Amino acid sequence: MPDETNDIGLERADYQGSPNTLCKGCGHNAIIGQIMSACYELNLRPEEIVRYSGIGCSSKAPTYMLKRSFGFNGLHGRMPSLALGAMFADRTLTNIGMSGDGDTASIGIGQFKHICRRNPPMLYIVGNNGVYGLTKGQFSATTEAGVSFKRQGTSRYLPVDICMEALASNASFVARSFAGDPKQLRQLIKAALRHQGISVIDVISPCVSFYNFAKNLHSYEYAREHEIPLHELEFVPTDHQIMIKDFEAGTVRNVKLHDDSIIRLKKLDKEYDPTSRWQAFKVLEEAEEHHQLVTGLIYVDPDIPSTFDRYDLVEEPLNRLGNGRLRPPRESIDQINQMML
Amino acid sequence: MPDETNDIGLERADYQGSPNTLCKGCGHNAIIGQIMSACYELNLRPEEIVRYSGIGCSSKAPTYMLKRSFGFNGLHGRMPSLALGAMFADRTLTNIGMSGDGDTASIGIGQFKHICRRNPPMLYIVGNNGVYGLTKGQFSATTEAGVSFKRQGTSRYLPVDICMEALASNASFVARSFAGDPKQLRQLIKAALRHQGISVIDVISPCVSFYNFAKNLHSYEYAREHEIPLHELEFVPTDHQIMIKDFEAGTVRNVKLHDDSIIRLKKLDKEYDPTSRWQAFKVLEEAEEHHQLVTGLIYVDPDIPSTFDRYDLVEEPLNRLGNGRLRPPRESIDQINQMML
Amino acid sequence: MQEDSTQSPHKIINDFCVMFSNINGTGSSTANTTVMRALFEMGIPVSGRNLFPSNIKGLPTWFTVRVSKDGYLGRVERDHVQVLMNQDTVAEDVKKLVPGGLVLYDEAFSMPETLPTSLAFGIPMETLINELDIEKRLRSYVGNMVYVGVLASLLGIDMERVAGAIEFHFKGKTEAAKMNFHAAQRGAEWAQANIDRIAIPYTVEPMHITDGYILCDGNRAASLGTIYGGVQFVSWYPITPASNVIEEMNEFLPMLRKDPETGRMTCAVVQAEDELSALGMIIGAGWGGLRAMTATSGPGLSLMAEHLGLAYFAEVPVVVWDVQRVGPSTGLPTRTAQNDLLFAANISHGDTEQVILMPGSINECFEFGWKAFDIAERLQTPVLVMSDLDLGMNPWMGKPFQYPDTPMDRGKVLWEEDIERWTKEGKLWGRYLDVDGDAIPYRTVPGNRHPGATYFARGTGHDEFARYSEDPQVWQDNLARLKRKYRQARALVPQPIVERQKNARIGIITWGSTHMPVGEARDQLAAKGIATDYLRVRALPFTMEVVDFMQEHDRTYVVELNRDGQMKELLTLEAPQHAYKLRQLSKVDGLAMTAEWITQRIWEDEDGCHA
Amino acid sequence: MQEDSTQSPHKIINDFCVMFSNINGTGSSTANTTVMRALFEMGIPVSGRNLFPSNIKGLPTWFTVRVSKDGYLGRVERDHVQVLMNQDTVAEDVKKLVPGGLVLYDEAFSMPETLPTSLAFGIPMETLINELDIEKRLRSYVGNMVYVGVLASLLGIDMERVAGAIEFHFKGKTEAAKMNFHAAQRGAEWAQANIDRIAIPYTVEPMHITDGYILCDGNRAASLGTIYGGVQFVSWYPITPASNVIEEMNEFLPMLRKDPETGRMTCAVVQAEDELSALGMIIGAGWGGLRAMTATSGPGLSLMAEHLGLAYFAEVPVVVWDVQRVGPSTGLPTRTAQNDLLFAANISHGDTEQVILMPGSINECFEFGWKAFDIAERLQTPVLVMSDLDLGMNPWMGKPFQYPDTPMDRGKVLWEEDIERWTKEGKLWGRYLDVDGDAIPYRTVPGNRHPGATYFARGTGHDEFARYSEDPQVWQDNLARLKRKYRQARALVPQPIVERQKNARIGIITWGSTHMPVGEARDQLAAKGIATDYLRVRALPFTMEVVDFMQEHDRTYVVELNRDGQMKELLTLEAPQHAYKLRQLSKVDGLAMTAEWITQRIWEDEDGCHA
Ligand SMILES: Cc1ncc(C[n+]2csc(CCOP(=O)(O)OP(=O)(O)O)c2C)c(N)n1
Ligand SMILES: Cc1ncc(C[n+]2csc(CCOP(=O)(O)OP(=O)(O)O)c2C)c(N)n1
Ligand code: SF4
Ligand code: SF4
Ligand SMILES: [Mg+2]
Ligand SMILES: [Mg+2]
Hints:
The complex is a heterotetramer, with 2 copies of chain A (341 residues) and 2 copies of chain C (611 residues). Chain A has helices spanning 27-41, 57-60, 79-87, 101-106, 109-118, 162-168, 182-194, 220-226, 277-289, 323-326, 332-339, and strands at residues 49-53, 70-73, 94-100, 122-128, 131-132, 138-139, 148-149, 153-154, 173-178, 198-204, 227-229, 231-236, 252-256, 262-267, 293-300. Chain A contains 11 helices and 15 strands. In chain A, the strands form 4 sheets. In chain A, strands 2-1-3-4-10-9-15-11 form an 8-stranded mixed β-sheet, with helices on both faces. In chain A, strands 12-14-13 form a 3-stranded antiparallel β-sheet. A two-stranded antiparallel sheet of chain A has the order 5-6. Chain A has 341 residues and is an alpha/beta fold. Helix content of chain A is 28%, strand content 21%. Chain C folds into 4 domains: 12-211, Pyruvate-ferredoxin Oxidoreductase, domain 3; 216-398, Thiamin diphosphate (ThDP)-binding fold, Pyr/PP domains (Rossmann fold, 3-Layer(aba) Sandwich), CATH 3.40.50.970; 416-491, no CATH class; 497-610, 3-Layer(aba) Sandwich (Rossmann fold), CATH 3.40.50.920. In chain C, strands 11-10-12-13-15-14-21 form a 7-stranded mixed β-sheet, sandwiched between helices. The relative contact order of chain C is 0.09. Mean pLDDT of chain C is 96; it is low at 1-7. One iron/sulfur cluster binds at residues 22-23, 26, 28, 57, 129, 133-134, 207-210 of chain A.
């Protein structure tokens, strides 16, 4: 039986990572699984993807996918700055940052806020388990208030809502999903990879070793029972648009991304407009109040300029410019010296 | 002529600071002026106030008020952590933190977000001039997008909205004011000083040396022309409540703080409910869209527990506990040793 | 002792090393520490060492229990007994076995063709476990007890002690304890039935030298010491291997620091959003007059650089525990090292000097836990305590913790009545005024209601009255005073420990947990005819003994766990005139130092000298 | 030259110091630099120094212009001429005047009763300014030009040169230039009419030794050097005194680094939210194959500690300028020091070693600006460049900037075709594999589309193929290779500069801007009969010359601007055998070093030796 390949002739195995050392059942595994599938299905060449992460189990996860791509596992909470700088090197690449709730919302909240503002073209996915996995079960900034662990006491403060933070910082694509909802997650990832600015996906990703308790939001059980998808979601790449037709009018809303691909949102219970920042705040606020897990595309602004649209740089990858284009010409030095008085 | 004094027998001069070295006309001067007045009028003893700040002109400003109080001018962007730790020493004191837009929204955004979550009883006032004053005119995270300075180029990113950040982080008192609106500012400060949690006041406070340009939000001229107060605001301390009566019903909304003092909000154009977080987001979002300066009490939750309500600490100031209450008794050591196996 | 043995004369008694190879997350540590505790309860000196990956579940982990009648606690490089419960590492593991050692493994494993011993026995783990009458989901955890029983039977570990150790672990959960002991018994039975104990060269016999001793890890000891030091405020950010310094506080504070009258706490623990904030908070608290501490490891320490400069310069007492791990950068987070010393000694920009304590045992972790506050508050400066993963996270034998032998020294703090008295006496107070001529000023803390007591603290230039100043002379004088103040620390910090041998011409210097194997190495060297003196540094600034020691010896070996010879560098700076006599014996591979390694190096080097 | 003078024989020609005392924010710097430029254009060596507060408007500020026919550029401790335009500081200012010096002040000021000179003249500033035909709001700014005219007239500064300097400043804004020159003329007229120039002991005369020289501050020079170094990515966070390294880039990049074909930029400048982020970004960019740099000062450097460890360990080339100011902590942000050296050398936890360059002139700021990239990329490691406020923010005379004399060295980077070729040749590539035996591996950068080119970088343990590893041996080998690699830097970094005098038995070592006064001090010492040799360190790691120099001399004075003798400590570590010959001559009060101070200390010390 010949192996199945995608349009660029690669097999699923070409998207695999190094041997996985996360716990079995860890939500992060589901996330990287969907990223690998999304990349395969979007026909992305692994060498044209770059992985970034901070420190934590979630930040180790990128090691276990896309082995054939470049990657940098940096410092705790500092993935955004590292990624931003690296993205300047070759702006044609696809960028995937993966982080955790501790990495993003505790130590990393400052860099997270600022990368959202800057809006570089990258998927910023958070494996949000409401706990520090790698350091063995301390509270993170997304742990719900009032949770008690024997060696930690009680978590005392209201949790950080990563989507709300992204929104407040003008991130241009904000979504929430759940590691136990692979279908939705994959569609979101695909859309995110095609969006021209930062795409924040906050994924509830249970930690089976330290915090998968049914009474808590970040568990499989709770999330499954309280998930409220905002819509049924499908990503239609540019080259597949023919498919759009077969939809009943009225029940579907299409959001067109900058590259003309489309996010097709099928209405569920309520009408929801993901292009209104204001509605986005509201839906998050309400979900928080009712301890529900709202998932789906919470907000998108497909046309807001990305980081690189704001710099007038030469078109070629900066890291391929020859010395001749980097060092000013010899003549110029006299002119400069003349100016020095 | 005998000098005027307040109810605790102090003169206004007792609330003065060290000689002021800010530029004449700097908005920060107006802020500290109103703080001094508020403290005088609230009959606060200067020794029972503690000042905190980071680094910047705005963070120098606390030096120029309340000389008779303790104070700590810490590191750039790190006032929140310093203040939080210090507040544990004696929980009976009144805490005033003053910071700048750079200090709070650039380098300090992480600590700012986290202190909002923790909700300690303090006034956190930001002298927001949209620029770095002390380092001579670079862009801050609140500079509007598109502003150009000769030696800086163009500011490229959407500004941070300090009130929205405070809201997203569950700060329990969020207000915006303007250094050119001293009356409102003073009322807000008084209310803030009595609120039992964190009170964030984002004050547009023009920098006359580097950024007071009429076309920009952070100038006196622009702010004056575009200020939209949400209400007329008056703070009525606990001991003055008798005065409340003389108001027409319907036009006034009273918000009762935890100590029974009252913030009296007189309706202006529109109805506004400052106890709805959701409306707060909306009003900020709209103001941003229309480049307007909405001022007043944007959000308050008078009853949310403060940091210290979340720790079960002895009632006396921790820093006055004698050695006998800090070192466990001699007998206990045997018990401990028995446990060590 | 060996001579008195009732066992066969060829037996090696109470002097070998047992290694357990497991997969992490399978609950093996309960089983392994049970063995260790049972041995300890038999009165035999033991030390346990856990080698674990930076991972939660599924990767190899090793635990070694060294049994040493001589009380040696250092790591040994080879195993005498191996319990192999991880198929993946079997091939590598057996390479570390001494020839003729004992190997126990899961019968189900495929083993290497050739082994360096004939004493290899496969335990039918699955069968034995399945025979146990326990819930399925518990089987793999409890199952580990089977090998405990096998081992106990083969080595002669008292099954009553095993029962005791299990009970201790399960504290009152009798059902669980019973179930576990049952599994151990099953293992023991199997061993008795299937293996001839006579052939096994290793055995244990009860001794009495651990009587009155305790078993504890350094982090817990640090935590308890801190609590007895009257800590009032803790802020921290989780990081291996420092986290459990604080986690132990979360466990012990409610027991030890609840105000008896009100039942309320006298210490607050705040988990910060990062280390920048953790140190910021304790500086605030320290400034506010609280005994404040944090614990971290390398990456966190790096993040504390700026704040440590502030604390130094604004003269705020704080205590920072650095439980060292392998760096640079994230490095090997679960491996041990002593490699933050130079960084800590030079931390923060500008001219700074830090007081550093270096505990070398659990008893010192406890003692420095409280003493660090006395020094910090007396000097009004940060005190850094450098522990490490090996000391902090492994169970060590030690004397019982001693109740602090001096009362808490809160340093020079003035309250309302003091200021009032000074004012009356016409005595001038300024926050940074050197009233006593010892370079240590008096301080006040917020909450002091005396109008003459307040001041404004800052990290910028200030005069003796805490007023902002850019005056060159004021700056220089203040910095000079800080240097004088630092020198005062020499009289306050723990002095080095010196041990001598007769006619020793060569010296050994270590610090921290590298102490553990040195005694053994010195015995080994002595046996080879090389007498050594030994000095263990316990603090910076150095005291005169350290210089004298270097001076007295022809050569001094500085043994430590890093690449760059960090202690050697500091010693060189302290006494460059003796530097030519210093020999760097440093290594960093993530494993604890061993006596063999030290002995070998010194032997080679000395031999060279003699040649 | 003095002999040839056409002036009265008692005049001091081209050898004195003019001090301007002003209030900051009043636009005096235009006036003061006009004087400096005019003198420079007359061919006379000058140096200017700005002493300013950490404040924007209203506090005292001082500017000194040293005129030195001998070309001495160091600070002098006393003023020969004072222009006092700040009432608040007059009383203190005049204490620094040499007896018989010239004082000009605003007539409106109340002056001290007694002055150390009879040559004190009140300028009727208000009257003169009001007479000028200019808008009211400009008067105070333009008014400063009045004292420029007075001074020019009294000292003999060519008014045409003054006009030229003003025109240079206002670049094409003819109206403003005219207005300002008019004010200067008015001042000159007044001086001619009211003061008898003959009595003034100081005068200037044209020389020609500045011909072909330039005036520039070190930060601008650094910025230009960086641009000529082909910088591609800059991230920074504002901080005095480093900000204008970057701000100058914002000004010069559009001129120098617009791609001629497309008119688009070949370098991006991103203002980060803080220094943690600034360094993070340039590490990302450096890893991505861009020449990346940042500039900061002490507090920012402290925040970079953790990231510098990552860059060291993941082997990412980045360039970090540290323009030093007075610390510890926020310290004196507008005063100069050389006090981050020990911190920088030991920055980050774990075992790390950093390459450090130390420019001592504007020409070196330029040169190291580009060279730092060559070294960083060749070695794949961070390069720190330690400048300081005095060098960075003051205008210095120097030779014209030289176009880089070597092509850009991008180090060992493999692109698609290289990997392809290696693969064909069967040559093994691993990111951290030491292929050439020089401890420097080959790297690839993202964007390289060859499937064999990619790798995963990290700050945790990794093997030669960049695979995660906790293996003890792998860790140790890697760290050892990094140490070998660091040694390679010796051959790449700028060698020290050595200047000798005949029969010198004593040596002087400095680094960075402390170089400025040393030549003068050596001349002074020589005049007293003390011959000295001089070595200026320009980089870490040290090269052999440094050790040889210490060895060759009986005593070596290490002159630097800090409290702890930081360079002396590093020299001690490098060659403890010579440490006994080192003398610490360090001070830190925020002011630049002076020749007087050096001469005095050495003289005293040597005298003691001779006695
Ligand atoms: C500066 C620093 N502080 C602390 C740590 C220790 N640390 C490693 S991972 C981690 C938390 C990770 O939590 P999260 O981001 O939620 O990831 P998870 O493991 O839960 O997926 C911490 C505190 C570190 N590596 N660096
Ligand atoms: C770690 C660090 N980085 C940079 C600086 C330099 N710095 C001092 S004040 C300041 C900005 C202040 O801006 P803002 O908070 O807006 O205050 P303003 O002066 O505008 O009132 C900066 C960057 C510093 N002191 N510390
Ligand atoms: S510890 Fe938790 S977060 Fe980490 S791998 Fe295991 S399940 Fe996942
Ligand atoms: S520079 Fe700006 S912010 Fe600073 S004191 Fe002056 S006006 Fe205020
Ligand atoms: Mg997590
Ligand atoms: Mg500002």
